[in-house]
Amino acid sequence: MRRLGERFTLLGPGLGYLTVLMVVPLALVLSYSIFQRGRFGGLIYEPTTENFARLFDPLYLNVVVTSVKLAGVTTILALLLGYPTAYAITKLTPKWKTVALIALVLPFWTNFLIRTYAWIVLLSPAGLVNDALTGWGLIDEPLQLLYRQPAIVAGLLYAYVPLMVLPLYAALERMDDELLEAAANLGAKPARAFFSVTFPLTLPAVFTGCVFVFVPSLGNFVVPELLGGGQTAMVGNLVRDQFLKARDWPFGATLALAVVAMLVVLLMLQAWSARRLAGDGDA
């Protein structure tokens, strides 16, 4: 009993945190999803499966497909940009490594909404990007950069690329340099050594970074609203609108549960892949 009490004392704060801020909200969302919407909002406590059937409406499926596409493109670009960045940071001296890492996380010290508005200043017809292109004589008229899907991807990429760089940097920093030396001694050129040694050893970090970028990108609603001008709806916008505008809490809760289920499956796949890679490495 004493040992059990000690364990509960250590686990109590964490379990309490998860219960209050995750289990209880999820239980409420689940309970909302099985009831009906009132005529003027609110809930009618009569069980129904209609909310789950509405998930397969082509209108909502199109929003989900668009969200997955934009989050996927953002994740791929974050990987293509983040891997070389993380690799370059590992080659710096300790002093400049610290400077680079601080510069990487520095934007997180600024409010997310302010950073998103900064992109409006950059991409607007009278913004810095169009002014620069016009001044250099590359264009005659301002380009319409805002309120398009590439603007949404740019905003998401800027917001979440550090979440890709940090796990990759940690994995590359832990890697034993003697492995690359051994590959070079066996006649492997730098490119061959990278794809045969470095990249396979960092695959778990690649999967982790992809999850870290994909998950918040999928649920983000601020960037599509501001940089997309509300013309491209993502899942986060749809859930928000169901709760705050349509006042359809049951269907909003059902959408939220569907997103949570998708993310749980994604996290399970990431964990399975990491275990599989770790098992292959031990073998």
TrEMBL record:
Keywords: Cell membrane, Membrane, Transmembrane, Transmembrane helix, Transport. Its main location: membrane. It is a multi-pass membrane protein. Pfam families: BPD_transp_1. Residues 64-272 form the ABC transmembrane type-1 domain. The chain crosses the membrane at residues 15-35, 59-84, 96-114, 151-172, 193-215, 249-269. Signal peptide: none annotated. It is found in: Cell membrane. It comes from the Bacteria. InterPro entries: MetI-like, MetI-like_sf. CDD domains: TM_PBP2. PROSITE patterns: ABC_TM1 (PS50928). Belongs to the binding-protein-dependent transport system permease family. CysTW subfamily. This is ABC transporter permease. It comes from Paractinoplanes bogorensis.
